[in-house]
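Write out the 3D structure for:
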Amino acid sequence: MASIRPALVVFSTLTLLTGLIYPLAVTGAAQAVFPNQANGSLIAVGDKVVGSSLIGQNFTEPRYFWGRLSATSPMPNNAANSGGSNTGPTNPALLDEVKGRIDALKAAGPVPAGPVPVDLVTSSASGLDPEITPAAAYYQVMRVAALRHLPVDKVNALVAGHVQGKTWGILGQPRVNVLELNLALDQLS
């Protein structure tokens, strides 16, 4: 009994500290300093939450900009099952996936001449990427403009207005959030 009591006190103290006090303190600090990020960076239209700026959405209609492919299952962009497909560059399944996406892009509507941006035909490592490169967004402008009966220069300007620069000016690459771009496109139409 003499050795059980100290063990129970240590167990109770650590449970209280690490299971209650620490999580509440971190949650409180996050809510105070970064409330949008702490709540999932949710994007709302009116009173309805339509997605998160941190998790890709599965846009398949040709009148919308498409994001990166997602290898998550059982559905695309499943945040509960983040992960890549693990298909390597010599795997025939990857080549078939790329060819299928190129065919889908060409079948959906007019596309510019030249190579297809790689992020439009390959899935991401996480399967959840919410962003594409500016090149991938501009590649889709002709299709989206034609299907929405909008001038190409107006859709180009919309894309240009949604290009985000490098984080803090030095990290990463310029990018376009697909959900935010498509919501702005809906407002434009």
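The chain has two domains: 1-39, 41-188.
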